[in-house]
Amino acid sequence: MRRMLRRGPGWVAGMDRTLMRAVSGFPGGHHDTFFRRLSASANKGKLWFGVAAVAALVPGRTRRAAVHGLLAQGVASAVTNIVFKTLLPRTRPLPEHLPVFRFVHPQPTSSSMPSGHSASAVAFALGTGLVQPVLGAAVAPVAAGVAYSRVHTGAHWPSDVLFGSAIGAGAALITRKWWPVRPPFPPTTRTWIKTAQVPSGEGLSIAVNSLGGSFTEETADALREVFPLAHITTIAPDQDLAEQIETAATRPGTRALAVWGGDGTVGTAAAAAVGHDLPLLVLAGGTLNHFARDAGTPSLQEAVEAAGKGEAAQADVGIVAVERGLADDPEMVELIMLNTASIGLYPNLVRRREQLQPALGKPLAGVAAMFRTFAVEKPVTLIVDGVRHKLWIMYLGRGRYYPRDHAPLFRPVLDDGVLDVRMITADESFARLRMLWSVLTGTVATSKITHLREASHVRLECGTVPMVLAVDGETMPGVRAVEITLKRGALKYYSPRPKD
Predict the structure, then answer these.
(1) Are 26 and 127 found together in one domain?
(2) Which of 98, 158, 321, 326, by CA, is between 20 and 30 Å from 168?
């Protein structure tokens, strides 16, 4: 039995010898040097890491194809070297089977069956091709050349290459659902309305939060230059933000309210705008400016254009009723939610992702942040609409966000009438391992630990200890319960209409 394993079954050995004699009969030439160098370039996957690094410079499907190719290559390499080379010991070709000038030196010492180079090459080529066919087609000839080079240089028998190639193809197919390509986002749509025109800022009251992420001493001057007729209130750090915005909204002659600041400041201004039936002009002055981006006013130029023409649209708002403090003497607070609310590890995940994003880019930064967050932190206990859960993340979006997985990025409709509810639970057995595996393979969205639904009302209660609630990036500790409902079309916001 041992003898058969080392040399292979008779028909396989016969085929190998026949094919090896055919290869040895090829005349020598520059192609010998080419195949020897190509084979060496693929040692330890160096060639495929290089191709993936170049492909990673191209965003979108090409970058995701490179990631999938590396995943498939990693699986194929592990299965080949850890499993089959141990189970199927086999001697490699001898110098007598090939011309001496072609025979690889030094020859590998591991089992000849199967070819690890071939497994990695086919896995990477097919793995990239399943995501981005053009890249896969470009890589395929290189992969075929690497596989053949193992026979040409005497490192493997032909059957080793065929078996290794089959393992590589299997690895690519098995991992095809890992890091799936996201479907395209739906188009942006608006419910357009006409509202007060405030050319040059006439009738516009602007509240400027000096704690905004991009505030400088020149901010008010820049706003005064484009809105010379507006009334501008700069809110100092020691002043009450809500009180100052309320004063700006109720100033005589005010027909529209503008706010310069981050998402938390915008939420406070939205509450005042809704309360006084004023259109809101959002001026991006924070760090992330999610609502300004979704509203179509991420730059001052776009905001000025929309306000001058009175171009606006409608948005739903979330009403967040918070109960905090002692159980027998609770404090009730009501907030406006324009973007998102979250409980659990989501704020920590976002913070880590933002720290890593400049160096890694958003997709890889998200993976690294999730892996780090779920590896070291513990789930929280929460009662969601009367059902107790252990949760890694509780996320609520005001409106339907995309992609429909654990990492919402984009909201094309601001008045769709839904709360986007996403839970990643730790109720299941081996919760941390499940979580880490799904993060590693990019299958969080399809994992059983992920629960996606839409609602118009959600009630959350703390399980064992008070929770920390984040609303539009602003955190609130000591929360015992929270109810979130929708108010349809309550906010009018300036947004430039697309040009025909």
Answers:
(1) yes
(2) 98
Q: What is the bridge-based pairing of β-strands 280-284 and 256-261?
A: parallel
Query: Is residue 336 located within the same domain as residue 376?
Result: yes
Q: Where does a domain end: 309, 336, 367?
A: 309
329 shares its domain with 224 = no
> Does residue 280 sit in the same domain as residue 364?
no
Span 228-270, pLDDT tens digits: 999 999 999 999 999 999 999 999 999 999 999 888 899 999 9
Asked if residue 152 lies in contact with residue 35, where contact means CB atoms within 8 angstroms, the answer is: yes
193 occurs within a structural domain: no
**Structurally, how many domains does the chain consist of?**
3
Clarify whether residues 135 and 90 are in a common domain. yes
Report the length, in residues, of the chain: 500
Q: 325 and 305 in one domain? A: no
| Contact in structure between 75 and 171 (CB atoms under 8 Å) | yes
- Domain of residue 31 covers 2-177
Burial zone of 252 (CB within 10 Å; 0-12 exposed, 13-18 middle, 19+ buried): exposed
3-state helix, strand, coil in the chain (%, to 5): 45, 25, 30
The answer to whether 494 and 312 have CB atoms below 8 angstroms apart is: yes
- Is 165:118 a contact under the CB 8 Å cutoff? yes
Instruction: Tell me the C-alpha distance between 164 and 122, whole Å.
Output: 8
Is residue 260 assigned to a domain? yes
What pLDDT digit, counting tens, does each position of 313-332 carry? 999 999 999 999 777 778 89
pTM of the model: 0.73
- As a whole number of angstroms, the distance between CA 223 and CA 206 comes to 9
For 53, the enclosing helix (H) or strand (E) is helix 46-55
* pLDDT mean values, one per 10 residues, the chain (500 residues): 47 80 79 88 93 88 88 93 90 74 73 92 95 94 94 89 95 84 84 95 95 79 93 93 95 96 91 96 84 90 93 96 84 92 79 77 74 81 94 91 81 95 90 81 82 94 87 87 96 89
